[in-house]
Amino acid sequence: MAVATRELTLVEAVNDCLHHELERDDSVLVMGEDVGRAGGVFRATAGLRDRFGPDRCIDTPLAEAGILGTAVGLCMAGWRPVVEMQYDAFSYPCLDQLITHVGRYHWRTKGGMEFPITIRMPYGGGVRAPELHDDSPETYYVHTPGIKVAIPSTAADAKGLLAAAIRDPDPVVIFEPKLHYRTLRGEVPEGDHVVPLGEARIVREGDDVTLVAYGSMVPLCEGAIDALDGEASVELLDIRSLKPLDEDALLAAAAKTGRVAIVQEAPRVCGFGAELAAILAEKAILDLQAPVLRVTGYDVPYPYWTIEDAYMPSVERVVDAVRRLLAF
Amino acid sequence: MAQVLPAERDLRRVIGDGESVPDGEVDGLDESDFLELYRSLVLLRTYDERSVVFHRQGRIGTYAIFWNHEAMQAGAVHALADEDWIFPSYRESAIGLLRGIPAATILQWWRGHPTGWWNPADYNVASICVPIATHVPHAAGLAWGKKLRGENACSIVFFGDGATSEGAFHEGANFAAVMGAPLILFCNNNQWAISTPLEAQTRAETLADKAVGYGMPGVRVDGADVLAVYEATREAVERARAGDGPTFIEAVTYRAAPHATADDPSAYIDAERVEQEKRNECVGRYERYLRRLGVLTDELDQQIRGEAADAMRAGIAAAEAEAPADPGLVFEHAYVQPPPELARDRAELRRVLGGNEG
Ligand SMILES: Cc1ncc(C[n+]2csc(CCOP(=O)(O)OP(=O)(O)O)c2C)c(N)n1
Ligand SMILES: [Mg+2]
C-alpha cells in the first residue's frame, strides 16, 4: 500500500512529528527555551502552542538543568516530556541531571517507574556561528548508561526517529543536524511514521570500501563518494541509532568490503567512532583487509568560524581515507 | 555584616525629562567626566549601529545587538578603576572598547577571525561569555582571589534577566556572598530572554529581590539613565572595596531591538512598547541632559560623533585588511603543552590541504 508523503525540510519533518505525537498521545508535552511563543529558535516547535495550548508547549525559564530535572518529576506525574535544548553546547548544564538521574532512575526504582523523556537538540558545526553553537556532544550522552541516542540524516528519519523516541519507554536523545535543517529536503510519510531505534540504513551500495557515518556526516560522505567519481565502489552505512546499535548492519557492511572508514564530526578521542572501531576489532577482524580508519573533528575546542572548515571532516579528508584504504 | 534588607523597589533615576521631572545631581562628577561618559555612550552606540549595517552587508556574522543597553555598560565601567575586572556576556561584546580594546578586535570576534580573541589580562576584560550565566562564578572567583591576595581590585559581571534562572547564577552569587567577594552582579534586565518575557522567567516582584536571599544589597536602577547607573555602581564598588562584599544591581531597561541579527521578534514583541522605548532611548536622554546643563554644544557633539564614526571606519577597514586566518590555527592554544597527537593531526590536515596550510 502506498504511503502518502509530503516533501519537507528536515526541521519541518521534526515539526510535523511533534504535531502528530502531541495529537496522538495527550500525555506528551513539549518544553524548553523559546519553544512556545516563538516556536523555537529554529521553528521546530512552531504552531504547537497555538494548537495544543501553553500547558503542552511550554516556554520554560532559562535553565537547562531545571528543564531536564523537572522532566524527571513530570514523568513521575505521568507525562511524556519532549524537551528541547536550544543548542548542542547549551545542553551542558543538563548533563548533571542526565548522568545522576535520567540515566539511573528507572534502575533505581527497580523497574517500577519509567522515564520516557525525549531530549532533542540541534547539533553540529558549519553554520558560521559564534562560539558554542557548533558542538557535537553525542558521546557524552551515549556514554551515559540508561540513555538511548539517535541522530537522523534525512527528513523522513528526523520524523521517524523522533516518533520512536517519544514512544520509547526509556530516555532518548535525538541530535538534529542543524546545518541541514533547511537545506535537506525529502519525502516524509504523512501521519504515523516510526523508524525503530536500532536499525541502520544503507545509503549507497558498494564493494570496495565502506563508509560508516551518522547525522550531518552522511550527506558529507555522499559528497565524497560523488567526488570519487567511480574511482571506488563505496558502501555508505548511516548508523542512525547509536544506542541501540544495529551491530549486524555494521558487521555486514564491514564484511562486504573489508575496508572501513568511520566518519564523525565530534573530536576523535573516545568519540563514538572509537566504539564502532572497537566493535569491528572484536567481531570483524577476520573480515578486515585494512586497518579501520577514522575521519573526525580534531581534539581541540571547536574553532573560530572562519577556520571551522579546517576542523570539520571534509570531502577531501574522506576521499583521502578511502584512497588510503584502497592502497593498503 | 552590613544591613541588606529589603531590596529596593523604586528605580533610581538622576536624569529628568526636561519638563515635569527635574534633573538630579551626582556628587563628584565634573565636566570632563560628563563628556567622557558621553563619548563612551556615543562610541558604543556607533559601534552597535554600524555593526547591524555591517551584518546586513555580509561583513560580520551573526551579531547580538545592544542598542539601548549602552548606558548600563558605559555608566558601570565609568565607576570602575582600571585594575577592576569586567566579565561581559555577548550583550556587552564591545564593552572592551571602553578599556582600549580596538574596534577591529571586537569586529573580528563577530567575523569569526582569531584576531578577535584577546588576552583578558591585557585589559582586565574577560572573554565574551556565550553560555548564559556561566561566567558569574568566574567573576566571583576573580573577586575572591583578589581579596585573598590582599589586592584592592573588584570585578563586575554582566548578565541578563534570563540568566538569573540558571543554576550558575545562583551558585556564583552565593559564593560571592559567602566569601565576601568584592563583586558587582550587574543584571541587565531588558525584560526579554530571546522570546521569553520576564514573567515567564520569575515570579519575584523584582530581580533585585533575589539579592535578599543571598544576603547582599539589591539595588534597582533605571538602566537607560547613565548617571543613575554610574552612581549605583560606584556605591557598589565602594562597598566592595570596603570589604562589605557583593552587591546585586538590577538595571531595568527594555530590549528595543531584535535579540540578535538572526532573530525575528515579530512573533512575540510588543511593537508599540518598542516604539515608546525608542523615543526614550538612553543616548538621547543623556544628550538632552548635557544640553540642559550647557555642557554639550552642537560643535562638540559633532566632534564626538565624528570621532566614533572614524573609529568604526578604521576598525572595519583594519578588520577587513587582516589576512584570512591560517587553518593551522585550529591547533593553536588548545593546550599549554600539547599532546603529541595534535602535531600528527596538524600534519594530516596540512597533507590533505595540499601544503596550503602553514
Ligand atoms: C546555557 C545557555 N542556554 C541557552 C542559551 C541560548 N540563549 C542565548 S541568549 C538567550 C537569552 C538570554 O536572555 P537574558 O539572560 O535575558 O540576556 P539578554 O540576551 O536579554 O541580554 C538564550 C536562551 C545560551 N546562550 N546559553
Ligand atoms: Mg534579557
**Percent in strands of chain B:** 5-15%
How many structural units, i.e. domains of chain B? 2
Question: Largest interface, by Cβ-Cβ below 8 angstroms: which chains and how many residues each?
Answer: A-B, 42 and 53 residues
Number of domains of chain A: 2
Task: Report the CATH C-level class of the largest domain in chain B.
Answer: Alpha Beta
Arithmetic mean pLDDT of chain A: 97
Supply Rg of chain B. Answer: 21 Å
Q: CATH homologous superfamily of the largest domain in chain B, by name?
A: Thiamin diphosphate (ThDP)-binding fold, Pyr/PP domains
Q: Could you spell the SSE succession of chain A in H and E letters?
A: EHEHEHEHHEHEHEEEEHEEHEHEHH
Termini gap of chain B: 58 Å
Helix content of chain B: 40-55%
Unreliable segments of 5+ consecutive residues of chain B: none
Largest sheet report of chain B: 5 strands, parallel
Query: Which range best describes the helical content of chain A: under 10%, 10-25%, 25-40%, 40-55%, 55-70% or over 70%?
Result: 25-40%
Order of the strands making up the biggest sheet of chain B: 1-2-3-7-6
The portion of residues forming beta strands of chain A comes to 15-25%
Report, as a whole number of angstroms, the end-to-end distance of chain A: 47 Å
Please characterize this protein's 3D structure.
The complex is a heterodimer of chains A (328) and B (358). Chain A is an alpha/beta fold and 328 residues long. Chain A has two domains: 185 residues, Rossmann fold, CATH 3.40.50; 127 residues, Rossmann fold, CATH 3.40.50. In chain A, 35% of the residues lie in helices and 21% in strands. A seven-stranded mixed beta sheet of chain A has the order 3-2-4-5-7-6-12, with helices on both faces. Chain A has a five-stranded mixed beta sheet with strand order 9-11-10-13-14, sandwiched between helices. In chain A, strand 6, helix 7 and strand 7 form a beta-alpha-beta unit. In chain A, helix 3 runs parallel beside helix 4, helix 8 packs across helix 12 and helix 9 packs across helix 10. The longest helix of chain A is centred in the N-terminal third of the chain and has 15 residues. With 358 residues, chain B is α/β, with parallel strands linked by helices. Chain B has two domains: 295 residues, Thiamin diphosphate (ThDP)-binding fold, Pyr/PP domains (Rossmann fold); 33 residues, no CATH class. In chain B, 43% of the residues lie in helices and 9% in strands. Chain B is built from twelve helices and seven strands. In chain B, the strands form two sheets. A five-stranded parallel beta sheet of chain B has the order 1-2-3-7-6, with helices on both faces. In chain B, helix 6 links the parallel strand 2 and strand 3. In chain B, helix 1 crosses helix 11, helix 2 runs parallel beside helix 8 and helix 3 packs across helix 11. Thiamine diphosphate (TPP) sits at the interface of chains B and A.
